[in-house]
Amino acid sequence: NADLTFRVKEANSLFETLGETQPKGGGNDGGISREDTVYDKATELLGRLPEDYTEDDYKAKIRKLGGMTVPMNIFLFQEIQRLQNVISKVRFILTQLQLAIKGEVVMTAELQETLDSMFDAKVPHFWENTLTGDEFSWRLPTLGLWFSSLLN
């Protein structure tokens, strides 16, 4: 079992490396460019993102449930804050990515990695981890599954 697990991880790593080394630009045959595809996907995702949670609103609702003396309410409060951080980060990065594609802001390494990941239908690394490598959100294999999980 350990050998099988090792070989599956190695194969997945190989496929990921192959995907990352594929040409990203190149000949434009008159079709839709990578940037246009990702821009449209970013527009779609921004339209589906939920509104920001208002701290006063959810604090009032938690007070109705017994306040912050109830351990589950403390957990709920922390999870709402965590979810709000994820929503804010995704909204900011998608907005910045659209501006970078239009040429209005500089295309940073983070935005380029986001563009490449979204084009490949993968979750951008910066949506799952902080800059220090700490886990920021949940891990799922595809962008569609990850975003559906965010909405649910």
From TrEMBL:
One of its GO terms (molecular function) is dynein intermediate chain binding. This is Dynein heavy chain C-terminal domain-containing protein. The lineage of its organism: Eukaryota, Sar, Stramenopiles, Ochrophyta, Bacillariophyta. One of its GO terms (cellular component) is dynein complex. GO terms for biological process: microtubule-based movement. Residues 9-151 form the Dynein heavy chain C-terminal domain.
